[in-house]
Amino acid sequence: MTDEPLVLGIETSCDETGVGIVRGETLLVDAIASSVDEHARFGGVVPEVASRAHLEAMVPTIERACATAGVALTDLDGIAVTSGPGLAGALMVGVASAKALGIGLGVPVYGVNHLASHVAVDIVEHGPLPEPTMALLVSGGHSSLLLVPDVTDDIRPLGSTIDDAAGEAFDKVARVLGLPFPGGPHIDRAARDGAIEIDFPRGLTSGRDMERHRYDFSFSGLKTAVSRWVQARQAAGEDVPVADVAASFQEAVTDVLTRKAILACQEQGVGHLQIGGGVAANTRLRAMAQERCDRAGIQLRVPRPGLCTDNGAMVASLGAQMMAKGRVPSGLDFPADSSMPVTDVHNEPAGPASAHDALHAG
Amino acid sequence: MLMLALDTSTSAITVAVHDGETVLGDHTVLDARRHTELLAPGITTALAAAGVAVTDLTDIAVGVGPGPFTGLRVGLVTALTLGHTRGIAVHGVCSLDALAQGAGIEGDFLVATDARRKEVYWARYRGESGVPTRLSEPVVGRAADIPAEVRALPVVGRGALLYPEALPDGGEPLDVYAGDVALVAQRALEAGEALPVEPMYLRRPDALTTAERQAAVERA
Ligand SMILES: Nc1ncnc2c1ncn2[C@@H]1O[C@H](COP(=O)(O)OP(=O)(O)OP(=O)(O)O)[C@@H](O)[C@H]1O
Predict the structure, then answer these.
(1) Looking at the structure, do residues A91 and A169 belong to the same domain, yes or no?
(2) Percent helix, strand and coil across chain A, each rounded to 5?
(3) How do the pLDDT tens digits run along chain B, 220 residues long?
């Protein structure tokens, strides 16, 4: 026996139905059902297709997670679920399922922030998070620099993209290059055989931009520059060197991401950088971040690629932290919030209930 | 039998606990948007009103639509997860059948509910000795496009409220009541019918494949 909380986490904010189970800081299982193949023929994620797939996959994925981990639902101490941000209809499937588990098992339910979960997942990979940690979250929907004094309670956004997210840029550039969706992994692979010889723009790094948008990112200008470059080649009747374009584009993205992340660490006096989100699976980003952090004397933490993309284990990990730190459960009436700000790490119960619970928790 | 019944296919977020004879407790709230917030508390309220613990439940019945997708799924995933968690059977009931049950009309009538986008979900029923039988498969379409002789029948559901010119003979109930979901499920179970929990969407997702988009561009 152990008194570490056994928590099941549910993630349905986009196209992956994720169910993970964590005991304290130990990952027991990370089960995923993805509808990504169904979206490929649409060239992007279709919300209604994703929501339908979540409904079909939800219970089977919970069953598979429990079977793989050798956990009975009745052993669980708590449920955590992504309540935002993400696709509203997709989030609702996970939130409703989590509440049904809470009712059926008589255990507390925590509605938690997707971005905070991307940070908390590293606890099951590399142990407790140093406080504070600097987090760089880069995915298809987000590119943010976050100062994280306490992942269960206190997350401060320092900067984010002012247009496209980094993963979105990967996906759009892949389309320009005729690579399949989602483009990130394909660009990553193509770039290995390419030369970094095209000098694509580094968004928001010039003198004036560094004053107004010190920790912000911009990738839409880069995407346009890549399209223009490719179109010019095509117009001239020349072959497009896909590998070189991929490598040069990827270099521009990772250069800006790592440069600003390290600057933020230095200026905020933070000795640890954690990278999360789907784009953290990128080979070049991982290598460049390691090199630059080593040079700057910053400790780098990046979870294995499978835990960087959306998954249920990250939600379970944050839920386990919430329970370990005695945070108040969310109750049963919290909403799915498609635009949940990162400063809301979890849904606190409304009004008198919170005072009541706090009294009892205290 | 201790059955928990629920439905989220109309404007009602409705829950009832039924013992095979009668409704022991229920909870219904009208809100076409806040299913995620209101359904779970509705379940605990209905159970408390019935004086039934969740561990005592033997069956779950859920309306499978047709109805607006997002709310419908909240009901379905709640029923499926709760059923799995307690290890009890979950039965799917056509939500229009539950509305027809609540109508209590003898003879032919129409059930028409709000499908949004200026359309209704509808099916024709015949009531005999308090038991309605569905005469046609549920479909989605404009109220005005329903055959004239069907439109002239008495109507239950919000369809008549929304399109009174096409559906002049509207009446109550407007929304599904979970107690009727339980009745319809129990009658079907007694008759040995299978009640699969399959959502009735009746519409394809709105999206064009890359190939369809290309074809549209080429046609233009
Ligand atoms: N090796 C890689 N290199 C670059 N980008 C990648 C790589 N692998 C995945 N990606 C990108 O990561 C994104 C997917 O990230 P993730 O799984 O976190 O989902 P998301 O829905 O975008 O996440 P979020 O909801 O957190 O915004 C896609 O844009 C994809 O192209």
Answers:
(1) no
(2) 50, 20, 35
(3) 999 999 999 999 999 999 999 999 999 999 989 999 999 999 999 999 999 999 999 999 999 999 999 999 999 999 999 999 999 999 999 999 999 999 999 999 999 999 999 999 999 999 999 999 999 999 999 999 999 999 999 999 999 999 999 999 999 999 999 999 999 999 999 999 999 999 999 998 876 666 676 666 666 5
A283 Cα nearest atom in ligand 1? 1
CATH superfamily, region B3-94+176-190: ATPase, nucleotide binding domain (3.30.420.40)
Q: State whether A92 and B44 contact (CB < 8 Å).
A: no
Residues contacting A155, CB < 8 A, separation 6+: A113, A115, A116, A119, A146, A147, A148, A149, A342, A343, A345
C-alpha dihedral sign at B81, A121, A159, A192: negative
Domain residues of chain B, as ranges?
3-94+176-190, 96-171
What is the rounded distance in angstroms from the CA atom of residue A320 to the CA atom of residue A13?
A: 19
Q: Which residue of B has its CA nearest to A106?
A: B54
Token code pair at residue A203: 């968004």
Contacts of A105 in chain B (CB under 8 A): 85
CATH number reported for the structural domain that contains residue A12 in this entry:
3.30.420.40
How far apart are the C-alpha atoms of A169 and A253, rounded to whole Å?
9
The interface predicted TM-score of the complex, written ipTM, equals: 0.95
Top mutation candidate among A14, A30, A45 for ligand 1, by most atoms within 8 Å of CB = A14
- A278 CA → ligand 1 middle, Å: 3
Q: Which residues line ligand 1 (CB under 6 A)?
A: A 13-14, 86, 114, 139-142, 167, 170-171, 182-185, 188, 277-279, 281-282, 309-310
**For residue B71, how far is its CA from the centre of ligand 1 (angstroms)?**
28
Torsion of Cα atoms, B91 then B95 then B96 then B102, to 10°: 90
A51–B70 C-beta distance less than 8 A: yes
The number of folded domains in chain A is: 2
A218 and A77 within one domain: no
Beta carbons of B70 and A92 less than 8 Å apart: yes
A347 and A330 share one domain? yes
Ligand 1 atom closest to the Cα of residue A308 is 18
Q: Which of A15, A54, A59, A63 to mutate to test the interface with B (most CBs of B within 10 A)?
A: A59
Contact in structure between A50 and A90 (CB atoms under 8 Å): yes
Q: Which CATH class is domain B96-171?
A: alpha beta
Residue pair A110/A355 in contact by the 8 Å Cβ criterion: no
- Picking from A43, A59, A333, the nearest residue to B80 by CB comes out as A59
What's the CA gap between B1 and B120, in Å, rounded? 35
Residues A269 and A164 in one domain: yes
- Chain B residues with beta carbon closer than 8 angstroms to that of A63: 84
End-to-end CA distance of chain A: 25
pLDDT score recorded for residue A38: 82
Structural domain including A285 reads 130-305
Check B36 against A102: CB less than 8 A apart. no
* Residue at A180: amino acid letter: P
d(CA B110, CA B95): 13
Q: Is the pLDDT assigned to residue A335 strictly greater than 60?
A: yes
